[in-house]
């Protein structure tokens, strides 16, 4: 009886392994970095790997910590926007040579210390146009600050000796004494530094090496003013803000907190506000004392807010979707266009009749990243507001890859794929019948064994 139970357990285990191997072998998409620890300013690579499966068409989406790293480059059929890298690929042979292993490699550059995380997801299809459901695994890199070691001051033993000699005797004796002081060990009778060499004493006190960490982070963490109505909502990547104030206000209190608590923040232009347009500058200087970033609050002082209204009522591009959806208070947008667009038809309507609109960047659009700027000038002739659109123009190759992927997904199954699917279904049915049959036989044997023993 015990032996039968052992056989039964082993058989069930084997059948279970067969079933899970055939049905659940969906593969793994994993990100890897060529460096686990880097320094601010260093470049590194992130690679997308597929194991346990092969894909004939795929789209990967890598989410990037844009506050700590910046995108440098990737394959031609990849694009980057708003902290996300999108990569598409379709087997040009129609599925005869699907991809596995290394799918693509992307290059990034670190810009702020900390832990930068990368995550991945996407859509994958095999040569038979069946969806693959892999597990996804991200990665991270540790970014360290650059260590700056100050240069120690020159050794002052000879000068000390010279000063001592000069104090002790005549010029020739002082010169001899200073020249012969070659050992750093002071004479036994000297119990304190010579008052004639105070600057040298200070230098000797600073000869310990101190490591100062520096950063290129010149971002603000928060920005507040004591007057309501500033737009758009604060974002560390948005540098221009707007507000209209009455003539009774002569100054604005600004509170600006940097992301790096050791960075310096300088605020200017927020007092003695004039009638009309004023620019309040918040300049953040990173701890490397080189990297600077200026946030500007455009404050218009007037008793007639309508004359200073430089908002748009509507913003749209023909056959193009804006991300996010248009809102008068949002000044930064993203959009993607096809390769055959060289010029865009843009509708930009101001809220106030009489305000003027100037559009730059809508003609001669290049492949890749482009920037469109829509500047609205209020009826007072001085107040302006900029709306920007980060526009990505696809290449012909990228569009061909997308078309091939769409065709593979939407076209009816071929006879070969139908046959393969039938074989897979038949395989599962055979396994299920086998499991039931073997289980029944074992049950009969166990029952027969019990009857014989009784």
Secondary-structure blueprint:
Blueprint: H1 2-23, E1 28-33, E2 37-39, E3 43-55, E4 57-64, E5 69-73, E6 78-81, E7 84-90, E8 99-110, E9 114-125, E10 131-132, E11 135-137, E12 139-144, E13 146-148, H2 157-168, H3 171-180, H4 198-205, E14 212-214, E15 220-225, E16 240-245, E17 254-258, E18 264-268, E19 276-285, E20 292-301, E21 312-317, E22 332-337, E23 346-350, E24 356-360, E25 368-377, E26 384-393, H5 396-410, H6 415-453
Parallel strand pairs: 1-11, 2-12, 16-20, 22-26
Antiparallel strand pairs: 1-3, 3-8, 4-7, 4-9, 5-8, 6-7, 9-10, 9-12, 13-14, 15-17, 18-19, 19-20, 21-23, 24-25, 25-26
Helix pairs in contact: 1-6, 2-3
CATH architecture of the largest domain: Sandwich
What portion of residues is helical?
Answer: 10-25%
Oligomer: single chain
Biggest sheet overview: 7 strands, mixed
Structural class: alpha+beta
* Global shape: elongated
Q: DSSP strand (E) fraction?
A: 35-45%
Alpha plus pi helix count: 6
Q: What would you report as the Rg, rounded to the nearest angstrom?
A: 36 Å
| N-to-C CA distance | 13 Å
- Please name the CATH topology of the largest domain: Immunoglobulin-like
How is this structure best described in words?
The chain is of the alpha+beta class and 454 residues long. It folds into four domains: 28-147, Sandwich (Immunoglobulin-like); 220-303, Immunoglobulin-like, CATH 2.60.40; 312-397, Immunoglobulin-like; 417-453. Helix content is 23%, strand content 38%. The protein is built from six helices and 26 strands. The chain has helices at 2-23, 157-168, 171-180, 198-205, 396-410, 415-453; strands at residues 28-33, 37-39, 43-55, 57-64, 69-73, 78-81, 84-90, 99-110, 114-125, 131-132, 135-137, 139-144, 146-148, 212-214, 220-225, 240-245, 254-258, 264-268, 276-285, 292-301, 312-317, 332-337, 346-350, 356-360, 368-377, 384-393. Strands 2, 4, 6, 7, 9, 10 and 12 form a seven-stranded mixed β-sheet that branches.
């Amino acid at each position: 009886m015990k032996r039968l139970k052992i056989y039964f357990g082993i058989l069930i285990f084997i059948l279970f392994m067969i079933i899970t191997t055939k049905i659940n072998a969906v593969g793994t998409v994993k990100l890897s970095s060529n460096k686990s620890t880097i320094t601010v300013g260093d470049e590194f690579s992130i690679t997308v790997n597929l194991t346990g499966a092969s894909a004939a068409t795929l789209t990967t989406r890598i989410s990037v910590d844009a506050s700590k790293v910046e995108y440098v480059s990737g394959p031609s059929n990849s694009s980057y926007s708003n902290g996300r890298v999108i990569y598409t690929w379709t087997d040009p042979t129609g599925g005869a040579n699907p991809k596995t292993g290394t799918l693509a490699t992307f290059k990034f550059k670190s810009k702020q210390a900390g832990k930068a995380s990368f995550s991945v997801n996407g859509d994958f299809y095999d040569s038979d146009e069946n969806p693959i459901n892999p597990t996804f695994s991200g990665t991270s890199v540790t970014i360290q600050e650059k260590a700056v070691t100050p240069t120690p001051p020159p050794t002052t033993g000879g000068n000390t000796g010279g000063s001592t000699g000069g104090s002790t005797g005549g010029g020739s004796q002082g010169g001899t004494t200073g020249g012969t002081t070659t050992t750093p060990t002071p004479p036994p009778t000297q119990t304190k530094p010579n008052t004639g060499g105070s600057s040298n004493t200070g230098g000797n006190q600073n000869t310990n090496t101190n490591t100062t960490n520096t950063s290129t982070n010149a971002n603000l963490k928060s920005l507040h003013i004591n007057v309501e109505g500033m737009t758009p909502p604060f974002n560390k990547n948005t540098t221009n803000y707007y507000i209209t104030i009455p003539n009774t206000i002569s100054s604005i209190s600004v509170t600006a907190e940097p992301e790096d608590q050791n960075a310096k923040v300088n605020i200017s232009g927020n007092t003695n506000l004039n009638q009309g347009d004023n620019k309040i500058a918040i300049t953040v200087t990173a701890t490397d004392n080189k990297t600077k970033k200026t946030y500007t609050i455009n404050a218009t002082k007037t008793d007639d807010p309508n004359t200073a209204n430089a908002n748009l009522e509507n913003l749209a591009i023909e056959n193009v979707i804006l991300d996010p959806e248009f809102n008068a208070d949002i000044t930064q947008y993203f959009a993607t266009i096809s390769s055959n667009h060289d010029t865009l038809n843009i509708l930009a309507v101001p809220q106030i009749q009489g305000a003027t609109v100037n559009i730059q960047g809508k003609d001669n659009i290049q492949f890749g990243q482009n920037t469109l700027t829509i500047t609205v000038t209020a009826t007072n002739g001085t107040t302006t507001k900029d709306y920007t659109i980060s526009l990505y123009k696809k290449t012909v190759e990228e569009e061909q890859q997308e078309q091939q992927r769409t065709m593979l997904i939407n076209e009816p199954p071929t006879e070969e794929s139908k046959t393969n699917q039938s074989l897979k279904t038949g395989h599962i049915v055979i396994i299920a019948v086998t499991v039931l049959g073997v289980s029944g036989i074992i049950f009969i044997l166990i029952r027969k064994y019990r009857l014989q023993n009784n």
